[in-house]
Amino acid sequence: MKDIEPAIRATSQARALCLSLQRAFLGPRALAALRAGRTDALRPEELRVGLGLAWAAGDPALIRSTLRRLAPEAVAADPVLAALRDAAGPD
After folding, report:
1. What CA–CA distance (Å, rounded) separates 52 from 60?
2. Burial profile 1-25: b = 16 or more Cβ within 10 angstroms, e = fewer
3. How far apart are CA 33 and CA 41, in angstroms?
4. Inter-residue contact 51 to 59 (CB < 8 Å)
5. Can you spell out the DSSP letters for 4-66?
6. Regarding predicted confidence, which is higher, 17 or 58?
7. Which residues 6+ apart lie within 8 Å of 28 measured at CB?
8. CB atoms within 10 A of CB 88
9. What is the DSSP secondary structure assignment for residue 87, as one 8-state letter?
10. How far is the C-alpha of 89 from the C-alpha of 91, rounded, in Å?
11. 3-state helix, strand and coil shares in percent for the chain, rounded to the nearest 5
12. How distant, in Å, are the alpha carbons of 9, 11, 24, 44, 77 from that of 14?
């Protein structure tokens, strides 16, 4: 089992790098789209990245206003969106 540990560690590090690069490249555009109220211009992964950055920026009002533009069923069906809805709290 010990032979597989370096491969698991390398895979984890590669995933972390990919997520970091995704936030770096998708993030600014996604956050700008959220602030402009253009959620329809974002793919689901861009929406999640933008909302994550809004959370990191301490902007629960942006999260709430963005999630209000989405169908409640879509928010409830997506674990990330549902968690952000719950974390952002009521208006």
Report:
1. 10
2. eeeeeeeeeeeeeeeeeeeeeebee
3. 7
4. no
5. GHHHHHHHHHHHHHHHHHHHHHHHHHHHHHHHTT-GGGS-HHHHHHHHHHHHHTT-HHHHHHH
6. 58
7. none
8. 20
9. H
10. 7
11. 80, 0, 20
12. 9, 5, 15, 22, 28
62: how many CB neighbours lie within 10 A of its CB?
Answer: 20
pLDDT recorded at residue 14: 84
Max avg pLDDT among 14-18, 22-26, 44-48: 44-48
Alpha-carbon gap, residue 84 to 82, rounded angstroms: 5
Q: Which two tokens stand for residue 32?
A: 């700008």
CA dihedral 56, 58, 62, 67 (to 10 degrees): 60
Q: Which two tokens stand for residue 49?
A: 């990245």
Report CA Rg, the chain: 16
Per DSSP, 54 falls in state H
Say how many CA atoms lie within 13 Å of 74 toward its Cβ: 9
